[in-house]
Amino acid sequence: MSNIEEVKLQLIPTSHFFELQGAQIVQKSVNLPAGTHRVTVVAQKEEELIDWMLLEIHVAPKFQDPPKIASTSCGMVTVEENMELKEFKRIMATGMTNSSRFRFQGSPSLFSIDPITGYISANALDRETAQEHLLVVLLSDSGRNDSCTVRVTVADQNDNAPQFNMDTPDEISINGSSQIGDILWKFAGYDFDIGLNGKLSVDLLEDSSKSLDLVPETGALVVRRFAPTDSWRIKVRVIDHGSPKALESEKELKILNFRQKASDSKDVEPIEFLRQSYISSIDESLPRGQFVAKLEASGVSGASGITYSIVEGNQDSAFSIDSDGVVRSNLELDKEILDRYNLKVIGIVPGTSPATQISTRIDIRINNLNDNLPSFPISKPRRVAENLKVGSYIATVQAKDIDGLGILQYSLDSPDPHFQVDRFTGVIHLASPLDYESSKEHTIHLKVSDGEFDAKTNLTIFVSDVNDNPPKFSKDFYECHVAYSPGQPFARIEVTDLDSGSKLSYSLASDTSTIFKIAPETGALSMKVLPPVGERYLITVTATDNGIPSFSTSVPVLVVIGEQTPTEKPVFERQEFRFEVLENSKAGLQIGNLSGDTREFLYSIQDPEASRIFHVDQFGRLFVAGPIDRELKSYYEFTVEIENNEMMSQKTQCKCHITVLDENDNSPIFTSSGYSIHLKDTQTTHGQKIGQILARDLDSDENGRVSYRILSGNDLNIVTLNTDSGVIQMNEWTDSQLEEFPNATWQILVEARDHGHPYRSTVGTVTVSLKMSSWSGSAPFFVLPVYEIHVMEDTPIGTMIQRVRASNRLGMENKGLLYSLKEHGGKLSIDVKTGEITLKSHMDWESEPLISMYLSVSDGNGRSAVVPLKIMVEPVDEFAPVFTKSSYRLQIPISTPAGESVGQMQAIDEDGGAHGIVKYSISDRQSTVTIEEDTGIIRLHKSLSSRRNLTIEQITVVAYSSRNKQTKTTVYLEIGPFDVQPTLPKLLLHSKPVQIAAASLILLLALLIIVICVCMCKSRSQKKHPEILKPSEPRRPSQKAPKTIQKQVYSVKTGEIRTLSGDLPHHFPSNSMTSSVSTSSDALRILRASSRSQMDSGIDPDNVSINSSVTDYLVSLGVNANPIPPRIRHNTTYDSLMNEYIYARVEDVLPPGPINLSTPSQHSLLRQPLLTAARRPQIPAPSFEPLTEIFSEIVEMQKAEESNRHRKEYVQVEI
């Protein structure tokens, strides 16, 4: 300005704190309120407005709070060792200025801090060097300081392997005085880690002698049994309990055994488990069937067939043990459910009476794996004021990880400049100012990581409004030309307040209140009186809000009073206009014209949103002013107003309706980045819906109508795609398609295309997969409905007798199959993975020719198959036949015709079936006798009439069931001039009188038996001692038996068979049985019934026994006449003394009373009738004596034959 004295400066509004002194603004008060003061300086010259300016005066607080460290950003923090820690923690503070600086008290060598941002960094820390670090953080600002402490705790990692103590020897001796249970050494170790990482257990890995044991908890090496070797080597290990992987160290030692072998030989190895306790570990989350441990026992052979059982600690049946002592997991284990199992296992050892029971314990640790995702709890929204200081605490988020393997680390999933999250504590601080007017709420996207898995969550922060904005006028200076009459509003002052809920009030400065007035609520200006024309008034309008604290703003308004001239009211052509505009139209495109008036007016769009998109110029032309997107808004409706500065009352309005037309500017978008379809068994029907894809197009009509098609990947035409709906349907399925795609996954590319011009398209991926673990085509089954395995009964234990293999419909290899046997009774075992069936006990065709059980296979996915398994035991010729005696004697009279049977051999074979059929042969070269191969009957081969003297021949009879299974016995043939009577069958065939006499004799014998029974009963009641009547005297009831009895020799004829037996003592059997040996099959049946036929002795008949042999006598009396060899089956009852009964005295074996030989319940061992050689009367028989004495007595008997021919002898025996 050329002449500043002529210019008048005015400060609006007038202030209590500032004033104009010339061209300078001067502070009037000492106590200026801090904040921003806004004033307008107006320059006038000769009442004409020259210029104006807006001036803002910022007043700083006199006393500013010093910067203060947020305590929530300090405190304790736990970090992992061996990890690079760059900017792992940030110290936050409020009231920071440009001069604020962070630093450490002292100089910690491992840590550093950024002086401006407050970030703390560190090198990799080692817990074993220092477990805790204390940092003191100082904040300085122009002499004002604040401090806090940060305690850094280093979490232990399992990074140190355990070691044995230095004093652990390389050799350990067992001295001569060592006993079972003695401790040879106690192993100890050390580990620099702590907690479970430093907890140690000691284990015995190798011990070839199987004589030592090691207690895991104490490390004591104990003698459990004595070894025969002088020295051997063992291997021990020390292992920690760390996670996720335990560390270990091994040591090999030499054991020197100085215990004397002589004493060793006297020791009996006890039956017990090799270890009193076992330790093992297994990772969690593994499929069932994992190997855990193998138990072994001492004092038993490998084929002992121990029955193992888990009797304690097996919660949820988590483990199983097979017949080999192998412990496996029975389900998928979870350390978070149970981290340790202590099992008690017992073993029942067969072959001892009573059965021996042994026991041991297995300590199984479940190794922790990082198999669980961390998780956030449900977070509640937080509300903070917008004037919250930077550095203030907002919230804390805490995630949980049940694995607990690593320290969780927090971060922002998407950057947000307003917030800062602590890496290890999850504490959130404010990093930059909030503004309610800019954003009423914030969503913090948080992420936590455990090193392998991530979890995310959102935290909503609502911002509370604070009255921190003063009212703002639409203009910084108003100028009005008024020619209206008083009382009419001539202008309206518009004011906005960004704070919510603010209620504004208007007021005028007191110096102009006599001429002008303003509506307190609307801000409409009017005049109280009409000033003279040409007057100019500069008035001050103040707008005040109702907030706390309250803010006000003032604006100058220049009012010029002019003459009232009639003006034409501006009008629109019509009250409503409708236009259409294509989206994405460029700015400046004219849409239409609202007025046909050529005068210039001020047109304003009343809708703030529409005013950013459209614009009306001074001639009423409507233009595009901003970007138009139909997908955001397809229709606008707003009001346009014409403002006339000269005549506010002449304002007019019209309404505009604008429809945004669609343009194909959007491509179809799939609702998912990729589609996955998992086929099931029930989804193989043609035309069945198995999935659907969907794409959306924001465009409308044809531009937004989407069609679908398959581009590639459907070479086998498995599916079809509906072009309109996107439905995926099954077209054709065969298992053979898996041959080309063994992974059972098909990647199909699909296209979504709209119908615009030009069209737009998007390509997506559909993954069609077949989960083989649940597909029926992969379900295991056995090809055979029944498995039959033929096993020879002499197959050694431990022999693999069969390898079974399950298949599936697809013929695919399945390595996860698990085989098992059910109801096997410990006879077989099967390898759960290979299907090899192994023999665990001896087979016996005779006792159990067929063993039935069930064979099962499962795939670990709940699918299994079971088929019967039959073990067909094939007989083997195990045993050689056994003769009933070691040698035989046959007495053959020289008068015996050729072809006559002279005796029968009999042998027993414990085998069954074809291998139990005994055949006979004579190994000697002789022509005297022959033997029938099947029956063992010996027949005279040629006539003996040429012989006169007594001769004895020896032959060897062989009994055999096969070429390799045979037994020999010696048979002595005594050939001499024995007086042998013709057989009764021949007399009956050739002599009628003889037949009658025989019948009479039988009847007489029956009467005799009745008389003897009556007499014996009578004598029993009178005497306690046996009484014997002499044969030559008549029997009197009162006569006592003599003390000496004449010995007799009996000659028994059974089926024309004569045998000789030696003298045996008498015996009283408990029961009697009979059998027939008429055929070899009958003999075999008798053997099965545990009753063997006995050869008769060729002894002459006496007076008592005419039609029966001594064997029949004995059988009728309840004596079992079956000689049994010592080698027999356990379930058969034999009388081993039967061989001696035939040579007993009659008085020693006959019970008192009459003898009844016709009782049906009494069965003879040989059913063939026993006939005497002649009907001549019996002679007194000598007692059993050597053969020479017998022949002498025979001569004497022949001399007395005639005199005693008609005399009958009766013998009565009382017992």
UniProtKB/TrEMBL annotation:
Q: Which SMART domains match?
A: CA (SM00112)
Q: Cellular location of this protein?
A: Membrane
Q: Membrane spanning segments where?
A: 996-1017
Q: Domain of life of the organism in this record?
A: Eukaryota
Keywords in alphabetical order: Calcium, Cell adhesion, Glycoprotein, Membrane, Repeat, Transmembrane, Transmembrane helix
GO MF assignments = calcium ion binding
- Name the predominant localization: membrane
**In the record, which residues are listed under signal peptide?**
none
Cadherin domain ranges (all copies): 101-164, 274-376, 376-473, 486-572, 573-670, 687-782, 783-883, 884-987
One of the Pfam families matching this protein, by short name:
Cadherin
Q: In the UniProt record, which is one GO cellular component term?
A: plasma membrane
Gene3D superfamilies from the UniProt entry: Cadherins
The alphabetized list of GO BP terms reads: homophilic cell adhesion via plasma membrane adhesion molecules
Stated name of the protein: Cadherin domain-containing protein
Q: Which organism is it from?
A: Caenorhabditis briggsae
